Amino acid sequence: MPPLAPDLPLPDCDVCTSVAEYRMSYGQRELDIRVAEDRLAERLHDGRMHVLRADVPLRDMVPLAESDLKYTIVLFAKCAACGTTWFYGLCIRGRPAYKPVEAGAEERWPWSPVPERERWAR
């Protein structure tokens, strides 16, 4: 079984669906990482969403990705309003993702070690 099932439909919930903001990049629609990170951080901070499991704290994801020391950096969060589990992921060679996933997806994800913080943190 792959770590993530095919894309699920978006829930009817303004709390979690309003995190994503998109922009055009090389002619394709792409998640705007800075806006999504700020919106997700706000929801995590005020309790509208909470982290289920993550490689690193949310604000450390971009610095780790920019270091090129870990290929994929992910965070799974759950919306307190509707109960939807969300995958937020950055990849040094791929497109960022923010999408609803099946409950328990964080348990099936193929977690890999994170390099020592001193090697990538600002």
Précis, in short:
By secondary structure, the chain is an alpha+beta fold.
List the helices and strands and how they pair.
Blueprint lengths: L13 H4 L4 E4 L2 E4 L1 H14 L2 E6 L6 H7 L4 E8 L5 E7 L5 E5 L3 H4 L14
Antiparallel strand pairs: 1-2, 3-4, 4-5, 5-6
- In DSSP terms, counting alpha (H) and pi (I) runs of 4 or more, how many helices? 4
Give the termini separation: 37 Å
Helix content: 10-25%
Instruction: Name the structural class.
Output: alpha+beta
Largest sheet: 4 strands, antiparallel
The run of helices and strands is HEEHEHEEEH
Q: What does the radius of gyration come to?
A: 14 Å
Overall 3D form:
globular
How would you name the oligomeric state of the polypeptide chains in this document? single chain
Count of beta strands: 6
Question: Are there runs of 5+ residues with pLDDT below 50, and where?
Answer: none
Strand arrangement in the largest pleated sheet: 3-4-5-6
- Per DSSP, what share of the residues sits in E-state strands of 2 or more residues? 25-35%
Mean pLDDT across every amino acid position: 93
